[in-house]
Design goal:
193 residues; alpha/beta; Rossmann fold; two-stranded antiparallel ribbon; 24% strand; NagB/RpiA_transferase-like; 5-formyltetrahydrofolate cyclo-ligase; FTHF_cligase; metal ion binding; EC 6.3.3.2
Length: 193
Amino acid sequence: MTGNVEAKALLRAERLAARNQLAPAERIEKSLAIAETGLKELELEPGMIVSGFFPIRSEADIRPLMAGLKSRGAILCLPVILDKTTIVFRELHADRPLVPMGFGTFGPGADCAELDPSLMLVPLAAFDRTGHRIGYGGGYYDRAIDRLHRKGLHPRLIGIAFDCQKVASVPAEPHDMRLHGILTESGLRRLNS
């Protein structure tokens, strides 16, 4: 298991370095391509709860995608860090302020409802063709998804990344949650998971 942790850390560092090398204008263009494809390809029913995220560091900016999904009837939520091991998802309201959550992130305050998403747009550091992902090392999403599964809920998991974050193979561990798809600037890869 230690070998997997070390291998993941190396792949994470390599792919984040590659993502950081993208010029800001290139990241914007690629983010807009992600939004355009996502709006065409993601299946959405009015009233569906969709968790997204606001970008930190060099992440893809999916705010245009989230705005488009909202205009089509989605209820949006963002991850909120409760403690060193737990995130929940709170409803995003245009008329309520976002509060600092740590790690340079902001999220809806305690006055916003906690929601269980049925479609999750998941940030990541690296991914492979089978839908395995490497997150940022905290395990927040894996634990949140496991919690939803224990409630009998099985959200669709769509990883959000740039093509430069793809690796040949992610050393998967039993607790890792596979993605149902990967959305990058070159399209949506649907996976049989």
